[in-house]
Amino acid sequence: MISLQHVTKNYPGSALPALDKISLEIEKGEFVFLVGPSGAGKSTLIKLLFREQLPTKGEIYFYGRNLARLNKKALLNHRRQIGMVFQDFRLLKQKTVFENVAFALEVLGKAPKEIEYKVSEVLDKVGLAGKEKSFPAELSGGEQQRVGVARALVKDPLLLLADEPTGNLDRNTSRQLMELFETINCEGTTMIIATHAWDLVDQMQKRVISLEKGRLVRDEKRGTYGYEF
Amino acid sequence: MKSEGLTAMNFNFLRYCLRQSRDSLKRNFWLALVTSCIIAVSLMIFGGFLLLAVNISQLMQDVQSNVEICVFLYDDADKDWLAEELQRLEGVETIRFVSKEEGLEDFGRTLGDAALVTGLQGENNPLPDAFRVTASAAELVPQLAQAMRRLEGVEMAEYGEELVGELLKLTGWINRLLVGVGLLLALGAVFLIVTTIRLSVMARREEIGIMKYLGASDWFVRFPFLVEGIAMGWLGTIVATAALVAVYGKVAATLQQDAFAFFLRPVTSPEQLLPVFTGLLLLGTCMGGFGSLISLRKFLRV
Ligand SMILES: Nc1ncnc2c1ncn2[C@@H]1O[C@H](COP(=O)(O)OP(=O)(O)OP(=O)(O)O)[C@@H](O)[C@H]1O
Ligand SMILES: [Mg+2]
Fold this sequence. Notes:
heterodimer, A: alpha/beta, Rossmann fold, six-stranded mixed β-sheet, four-stranded antiparallel β-sheet, B: alpha+beta, Alpha-Beta Plaits, 9 helices, 4 strands, elongated, binds adenosine-5'-triphosphate, binds magnesium ion
């Protein structure tokens, strides 16, 4: 599904590359943790996959298509197949929970009836039934992140990218969120999650890709976090 | 099936745009109002000039078509033959013979004192016999005068060349002033629209950022702002048109009743006024849309 070939990313003005000749494959339906110390290049990799940025060298293929060669329409299509979850949730505070999630479908020009149905369904799935009319400020951090996940999920993405989704959550809430991710993954969505939550990584026994200073240093099928704290 | 889906999508999109624009206008209510007012004022002034220009050009037509050609004759000219020849010229409407005696009387009347010309009667009369000719259309006058000068027995054929020339010069100036002032005002209004739209882009910056991650197309992001700008343009135009219609109606009515202004006949026919007002609406729309586009180019890199 995803294939990186010798991908290097240099940001202008910094001597060391953020990513250095990374090659890897990710299959459909996989659950992948992206780990590594701060500045290792995890966020950069996620931005490249969303095609928010282009690699300096090397190629990224998504279902066989080179991400550097997408025209405008294909780029939109690419992004529409991907759900994004952020560390800081990025909810619109003047919109309710329902409206925040519905926004993802409005942007795609879906009909109100379909939106109503899909949003209720996905809020149910993430465990937020009954909170439709609340505003983000009235929710706990964990609940806010569930809204973020619901928004990413409501358009049935092929791939879900999450950059430190538990970064602002306590341990217990983080575990519940990871369990939600596991459920979503079981239903067929490929997951790539950049995280520092070492205990959860150790517990969940998923594929772990470790980056250090932009280099791929470890890639294990049932890995652990692998760094001491 | 496919086109059905497309139409539904466009309809949802349109509804979304209108809602967004409405919310934006609500949020920036006062600024949007001020912007609309400035557009209204500039269109009012512009429209006022336009109405003035329409009236002046009408006045010009009147003056020109009332212009008589004075055909002065040599003493030995064959008047009957000339009268026939003049009548035969294309575009001649009426001809009237003015003998030198009548001409002198006219002249005395014009001076306001018949006594001044008493010594000039009879043998001493310096004036020639003349025909006074009117043309069926103003623009024919110069050619007709030219043709008459070539006729045997005609000494001169004159019409108010100077007057017509002056009037043409004056309307030229007025038109130039109109274009200049109109351009300045339009520029100011467009600049205000740019500012308003920019503020509303800023207010929704966060939302726009998220829209990108949700896969919104550029036009999906931009269109509501364009609608917003055009809405302000329309609001301004409607206000301006209403004000102009009211004021112009009043002025026209007053002028038509005023006996001293009998020579000023304001244009009231819909055929002449409608283009003015559709022009204003078009201008308002363009100003709104143009301002938005500039703003989006500058502040909304999607
Ligand atoms: N927009 C940018 N411009 C310049 N340099 C950047 C930019 N984004 C990231 N970098 C640099 O690239 C390197 C990798 O950054 P990245 O954000 O990918 O790290 P990370 O693994 O996500 O770190 P963290 O765990 O702290 O989020 C860092 O050295 C960072 O300074
Ligand atoms: Mg990061």
